[in-house]
Specification:
alpha/beta, Copper Amine Oxidase, Chain A, domain 1, Aminopeptidase, 6-stranded mixed beta sheet, 5-stranded antiparallel beta sheet, 10 helices, 36% helix, binds zinc ion
């Protein structure tokens, strides 16, 4: 009887506060304190910074910028999606514990204590093919499947010149099942998997543009752009490599966004079929919007696709360097 009385009292207390008990259960940690542990110190805000934002910097480490209520954090100048938005606790920004473990540690601490591994064999996966054209550009008359294959062939040449062994999930216009793409990478014992795609907006959207880079969603969390209901606690084979997946996605995203000078649509998370069961680190690059009036025209241009391939290769080299002790 007494315990029940306590529960009712507690419930009444929460009702009185007007907050759900779950809001209190968020395992947040102070952003400043955790970044200090990782070697970053708070620095002066810029005049243009919004209220309730914080900046951090450290020697040989990527800068961090964070803002209250944002679902992403800016690391090294590009956005990285979080599983929970940042909040303010007692006047300071706080970050969810999962994001500390799955975002800050792989990207910041690992810059100081690298994984100490090398890699050689890269599988490139040109999205779509055959009966599946992907996004179509009516304005410039080409299909996503052709743009991904051309970019993949360009990337292959660049990476081979750099000394990597490169294999493709398709080298011509043919249909390949999503699961077969991933199985192929596992069968040939790939060290790295890069899936290439281009994006499309809604039927009347001809302005959205920018690059997104995806890696596998962390177990127990929901994917970017999806409701909390999609959170799955299942640990997928690809989740064994959460830290490397994110480091690869971020390294490539930094290069592509900065080189292509397009909108930073962030490093995001999804349980894509091609990433779920990989035995090696893997990412999916959405290299721009075919549906955009301006970016769609750029993607149609071979020079643009060459530049994109070069920037992805540069990101892979950065990733490789970050692994070295
Ligand atoms: Zn696609």
């Amino acid at each position: 009887m007494k315990a029940r009385g306590h529960t009712l009292l507690l419930l009444a207390f929460f009702l009185w506060l007007g907050v759900a008990p779950s809001a209190w259960a968020r395992p947040d940690v102070s952003l400043g304190e955790t970044l200090k542990l990782l070697g970053l110190q708070p620095v002066q805000s810029l005049k243009t910074d919004p209220a309730e934002s914080e900046r951090y910097a450290g020697k040989n480490l990527p800068d961090v910028f964070a803002e209250n209520k944002k679902p992403y954090i800016t690391i090294g100048g590009v956005k990285v999606w979080l599983t929970e938005s940042l909040i303010v606790i007692k006047g300071n920004l706080a970050i969810d514990r999962v994001d500390y473990d799955k975002v800050l540690v792989p990207l910041i601490w690992r810059n100081k204590a690298p994984f100490g591994i090398g890699f050689r064999r890269i599988v490139i996966d040109p999205g779509h093919g055959g009966k599946d054209p992907g996004i179509m550009s009516k304005a410039y008359n080409y299909a996503e499947k052709s743009a991904t294959l051309d970019t993949a062939l360009r990337l292959k040449i660049i990476l081979e010149k750099l000394g990597f062994e490169v294999l493709l999930t398709r080298d011509k216009d043919k249909f390949v099942e999503l699961s077969d793409r991933c199985d192929y990478a596992n069968k040939v014992k790939a060290d790295l998997f890069i899936s290439l795609h281009f994006n499309g907006g809604g039927p009347k959207d001809s302005t959205t543009s920018g690059i997104e880079t995806y890696c596998l969603t962390v177990a127990g969390e929901s994917s970017t752009n999806q409701s909390k209901k999609t959170a799955s606690s299942i640990m997928l084979p690809g989740n064994r490599l959460d830290a490397l997946n994110l480091l690869l996605a971020w390294s490539v995203h930094l290069r592509t966004v900065n080189t292509m000078g397009t909108e930073d649509r962030a490093v995001k998370r999804a349980r894509f079929a091609v990433l779920k069961s990989l035995n090696c680190p893997g990412i999916l690059v959405e290299g721009g919007f075919i549906s955009s009036q301006t970016e769609g025209a750029q993607i149609a241009n071979p020079n643009h696709r060459q530049k994109l391939a070069e920037s992805i290769a540069a990101g892979i080299i950065d990733y490789s360097n970050r692994l070295k002790p």
